[in-house]
Design brief:
mainly alpha, 79% helix, 311 residues, single chain, 0% strand
Length: 311
């Protein structure tokens, strides 16, 4: 337990530093945006590319772990839709944001450092596989729901196509893809190039945690908290519980596949939930409060799930 605390505390501690720096006004909206863009467009893609080159892929990949994670994610996503529609009587155009708050995990900024720190190098492949499919699976569904909810069904296919292009050209997805290609063809980086990108890869995780803290510091907490608390509860409790049921009793997955599926499912709602809400002007206040509350509560809940999964 002491080892787990010493691993989890620094991760959330760095996030807290970014949060209070933003709350103190030392960094504003523009500075936060620049840090986030640096992390997503440069540091994380380079780290993923370099990591894939050095990854030892297992002889057998237990693809069922994707079913455990994403099956649970879509069920929880649907539960978020139901709570929003029947519990809070929200309009159809906002339902997808509630669904994302319940089922869309923070896989990059928190998932990478916590999972790799908890389960070591052998968790690299399952972690990166989840990241590779994360946006491709959940974001197009949300776009279609938002557009059809606004009576724009005839434009949903065009919006979906544009989103797919955005996903495929996403720097994080590109970093993973190029890394896989380089690994498959046994590419070795020249020493000069590797030495140049190594420092950028090394600072990716700390910068991602700072960026998350800065982003959370800009989210408002005032207003009706019931919807955000409901989505946070679905995300932190229901999603990982369902993932555990599918991964362990149903599929009998082994290490590290079951651990990665469950603990990644226990991650709080990702910042993309708020970005989507703001982009489409669909319940952005609920999205912001959900991300903030879920992230704060996850300090405890993620630690519990990590202990249960043998971190």
């Amino acid at each position: 337990m002491i080892e787990l605390i010493t691993m989890v505390a620094p991760v959330f501690g760095v996030v807290a530093v970014g949060f209070f720096v933003r709350r103190a006004g030392l960094v504003g909206d523009r500075g936060t945006k620049r840090v986030v863009l640096f992390v997503f467009n440069a540091a994380i893609p380079v780290m993923l590319f370099r990591s894939m080159l050095g990854t030892n892929f297992p002889a057998e990949i237990q693809w069922g772990f994707l079913l455990a994670f994403y099956g649970a994610a879509f069920v929880t996503y649907g539960a978020g839709l139901g709570v929003a529609h029947y519990g809070f009587k929200r309009p159809r155009a906002e339902l997808a944001i509630y669904g994302m708050g319940a089922g869309f995990s923070n896989t990059v900024m928190l998932g990478i450092p916590l999972l790799l720190g908890a389960f070591g190098e052998e968790a690299t492949v399952p972690v990166f596989l989840i990241i590779a499919f994360h946006s491709i699976t959940l974001l197009p569904v949300s776009v279609v729901l938002i557009q059809t909810g606004r009576g724009q069904g005839e434009r949903s296919l065009a919006g979906l196509w544009q989103l797919l292009l955005d996903v495929l050209t996403n720097p994080i997805i590109l970093g993973l893809t190029l890394g896989l290609i380089a690994y498959y063809f046994d590419v070795t980086l020249p020493g000069l190039i590797d030495s140049a990108i190594a420092p950028l890869a090394a600072i990716a995780i700390p910068c991602a945690l700072i960026a998350l803290g800065l982003s959370l510091g800009g989210y408002p907490l005032s207003g009706d908290l019931k919807p955000a608390l409901s989505m946070a509860a679905l995300k932190l409790a229901v999603h990982p519980t369902l993932a555990w049921i599918i991964a362990v009793p149903v599929l009998g997955l082994g290490t590290p596949w079951a651990q990665v599926a469950v603990v990644m499912a226990s991650m709080p709602s990702g910042a993309m939930v708020y970005l989507f809400g703001a982009r489409y002007d669909a319940a952005p206040d609920v999205a912001a409060r959900t991300v903030l509350i879920a992230s704060a509560m996850s300090v405890v809940t993620v630690s519990v799930w990590m202990v249960l999964m043998g971190a």
